[in-house]
Design goal:
Bound molecules: S-adenosylmethionine
EC number: 2.1.1.207
Order of helices and strands: EHEHEHEEEHEH
Function: Methylates the ribose at the nucleotide 34 wobble position in the two leucyl isoacceptors tRNA(Leu)(CmAA) and tRNA(Leu)(cmnm5UmAA). Catalyzes the methyl transfer from S-adenosyl-L-methionine to the 2'-OH of the wobble nucleotide.
Number of domains: 1
Subunit structure: Homodimer.
Largest sheet: 7 strands, parallel
CATH superfamily: SPOUT methyltransferase, trefoil knot domain
Strand content: 15-25%
Radius of gyration: 15 Å
Shape: globular
Structural class: alpha/beta
Keywords: Cytoplasm, Methyltransferase, S-adenosyl-L-methionine, Transferase, tRNA processing
InterPro entries: Alpha/beta_knot_MTases, SpoU_MeTrfase, TrmL, tRNA_m1G_MTases_N
Number of strands: 7
């Protein structure tokens, strides 16, 4: 399991997600350009001292991210997009241990060209009329379900 953040624009959210992934041993891909620098104080405040404990890969853009995935010696697994514009509820989706869960940017999600290129799209069901969850909250909800299904929680 991996998490990918598409052009994140709020440092606190990325810091919170990095801490989440440090705790569960989940590698993170940050797909640029991001709306902040990785040395941002707000990111560090949210991630606390967990940053050295997360495996972080940074990519200049979506194309380089996809090229790098294709270049790995083992098949990269599915790219699963979390989006409010999907029909499959995350609880009904069968996760696999090699899935990469991709989250959109806070301001605009992902562009149509990215939306159309992923292997699967899933949504966290919400009450009608409300726009979306915070990206870090969405990451925690889906990562929790994916780890539960795949037996991927750490076994201390
Ligand atoms: C603040 S939301 C983005 C809202 C943006 N206006 C849009 O139209 O996508 C940031 C990201 O959190 C994730 N997210 C938020 N709520 C979600 C939900 N109910 N289901 C799945 N993903 C969600 C998605 O990855 C989304 O791109």
């Amino acid at each position: 399991m991996r998490l990918a953040l598409y052009q994140p624009d709020i440092a606190q959210n990325t810091g919170t997600i990095l801490r989440l992934c440090a705790c569960f041993g989940i590698p993170v891909d940050v797909i640029g350009p991001a709306g902040f620098d990785m040395s941002d104080r707000a990111l560090k405040r949210a991630a606390l001292d967990y940053l050295p404990h997360v495996e972080l890969a940074r990519h200049a853009g979506y194309e380089t991210f996809m090229e790098q995935r294709a270049a790995t010696s083992t098949p990269p697994g599915r790219l699963v997009l979390l989006t409010t514009k999907a029909a499959i509820p995350h609880c009904d989706f069968r996760f696999a241990p090699d899935d990469t869960l991709m989250l959109g940017r806070e301001s605009a999600g992902v562009p149509d060209a990215v939306h159309d290129r992923v292997d699967a799209r899933i949504t966290i069901p919400m009450r009608p009329g409300l726009r979306s969850l915070n990206v870090a909250v969405a990451a925690a909800i889906v990562l929790g379900e994916a780890l539960r299904q795949t037996g991927g929680y750490p076994h201390p």
